[in-house]
């Protein structure tokens, strides 16, 4: 690139990272708002923890399926349009959730009783399923966006910064939800859906107007893939061919054992993360005796401070200490998460909120490193040709974890108490650390393997000709 092109590229790279960060933070506004409303929904309608857990599980499973499906779509369509459309649809279904009690009233003709609660539960669950699917349109377009705008050797650091988006979004919505519940008491559950939805609708329009898919969209040359010879990107008529893409996916994604190890590890990482994040507004008051308002602030600090610092430090360590081998960083992060969770569990409930906040925030510091890095590792292993597809697999494993962190967690809390939930979290964290350790010696990216695949395919084509 010329100096002028380099300057323009840097501007658009920074703009893409910032705009997509804001956009994905807003996805969390219309996703984690349900978690902020859970205590109010339980108190207002008498819905049990197990039922709330079922909501979380169904939402998580459909989200994982959606990320898997949309991962393949996002590799083939405009990332800008796809991401904006998903956010707008999430906002609309959140508006519907805000009036779910009115829908149940229209159906049953009564505002109470078992028939009303059954109808309300079905309506809420159905809307959450829709929201879960539309939420799955948020991450997939980011993988091709980032791999088109960020070189592979900078991806861990810059994606770790980008991954602050969900911590910012979740942190802000937990603060907003805590303030609404504190000010309006349990009647605030409706506002927890309507206010974030209005903000997100505006954000969807901004995403569409300000994002650009790749450098060529603004008249700039595309990035050259770092460890791959020109054969990977030279034959445009070949790389755009459907048969080529399917063969590439078979080799670099579905037939790549590293992708599957990363995916299984993601399952365990998300159990730890969601157990603390999704249930924080109930776990903290239930097991440590803090108020709902204080719990909201602690969960926000968990996201803002612990999560953001953990992702940035883990990204820096990956690029500067571990030679861009994100999987090695993840081993140490998982060990830190295990130790921090054990300490938090053992701190007595008589301790002050400040004392409780330290190990609780450290859990986020360590678990959000792998949460960010596993996706980066998958994108690098699959290369920019199939980054979204690889992350689709990680997504379905990650959100399959809600079978444990959702209904499983709620069932354990209902029948065995909050103390038993910590044992579950620790057990899965240990298994996660052992899983990621199995690929300690793996290379940092798959561009060399992609070059080999292209060379083999080129040779085969030439022989056939």
Automatic annotation (TrEMBL):
Keywords: Membrane, Transmembrane, Transmembrane helix. One of its GO terms (molecular function) is glucose 6-phosphate:phosphate antiporter activity. It is found in: Endomembrane system. It comes from the Bacteria. One of its GO terms (cellular component) is endomembrane system. The keyword Glycoprotein does not apply. PROSITE patterns: MFS. GO terms for biological process: phosphate ion transmembrane transport. Gene3D superfamilies: MFS general substrate transporter like domains. It is a multi-pass membrane protein. This is MFS transporter. It comes from Alistipes communis.
């Amino acid at each position: 690139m010329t100096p002028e092109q380099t300057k323009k590229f840097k501007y658009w790279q920074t703009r893409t990272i910032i705009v997509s960060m804001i956009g994905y933070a807003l996805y969390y506004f219309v996703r984690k708002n349900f978690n902020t409303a859970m205590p109010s929904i339980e108190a207002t309608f008498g819905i049990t923890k197990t039922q709330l857990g079922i909501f979380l599980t169904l939402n998580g499973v459909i989200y994982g399926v959606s990320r898997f499906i949309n991962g393949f779509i996002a590799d083939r369509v405009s990332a800008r349009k796809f991401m904006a459309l998903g956010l707008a649809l999430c906002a609309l279904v959140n508006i519907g959730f805000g009036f779910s009690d009115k829908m149940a009233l229209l159906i049953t003709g009564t505002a109470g009783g078992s028939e009303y609660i059954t109808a309300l539960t079905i309506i809420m669950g159905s809307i959450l399923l829709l929201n879960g699917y539309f939420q799955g349109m948020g991450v997939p377009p980011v993988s091709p966006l980032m791999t088109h705008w960020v070189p592979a050797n900078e991806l861990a650091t810059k994606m770790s910064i980008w991954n602050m988006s969900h911590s910012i979004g979740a942190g802000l919505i937990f603060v907003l939800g805590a303030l609404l519940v504190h000010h309006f008491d349990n009647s605030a559950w409706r506002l927890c859906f309507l206010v974030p939805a209005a903000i997100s609708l505006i954000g969807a329009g901004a995403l569409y107007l300000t994002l650009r898919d790749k450098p060529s969209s603004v008249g700039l040359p595309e990035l050259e893939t770092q460890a791959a010879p020109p054969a990977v990107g030279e034959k445009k008529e070949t790389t755009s061919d459907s048969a080529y893409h399917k063969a590439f996916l078979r080799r670099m994604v579905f037939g790549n054992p590293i992708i599957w190890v990363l995916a299984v590890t993601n399952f365990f990482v998300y159990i730890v993360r969601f157990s603390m994040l999704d249930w924080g507004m109930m776990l903290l008051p239930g097991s440590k005796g803090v108020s709902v308002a204080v719990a909201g602030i602690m969960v926000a600090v968990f996201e803002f401070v612990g999560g953001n610092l953990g992702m940035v430090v883990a990204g820096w360590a990956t690029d500067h200490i571990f030679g861009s081998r994100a999987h090695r960083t993840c081993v140490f992060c998982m060990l830190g998460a295990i130790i921090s969770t054990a300490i938090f569990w053992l701190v007595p409930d008589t301790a002050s909120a400040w004392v409780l906040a330290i190990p609780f925030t450290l859990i986020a510091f360590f678990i959000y490193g792998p949460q960010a890095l596993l996706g980066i590792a998958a994108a690098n292993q699959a290369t920019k040709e199939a980054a979204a597809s690889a992350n689709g697999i990680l997504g379905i494993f990650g959100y399959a974890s809600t079978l444990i962190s959702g209904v499983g967690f709620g069932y354990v809390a209902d029948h065995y108490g909050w103390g038993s939930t910590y044992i579950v979290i620790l057990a899965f964290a240990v298994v996660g650390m052992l899983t990621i350790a199995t690929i300690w010696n793996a290379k940092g990216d798959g561009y060399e393997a992609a070059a080999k695949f292209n060379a083999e395919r080129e040779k085969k084509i030439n022989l056939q000709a």
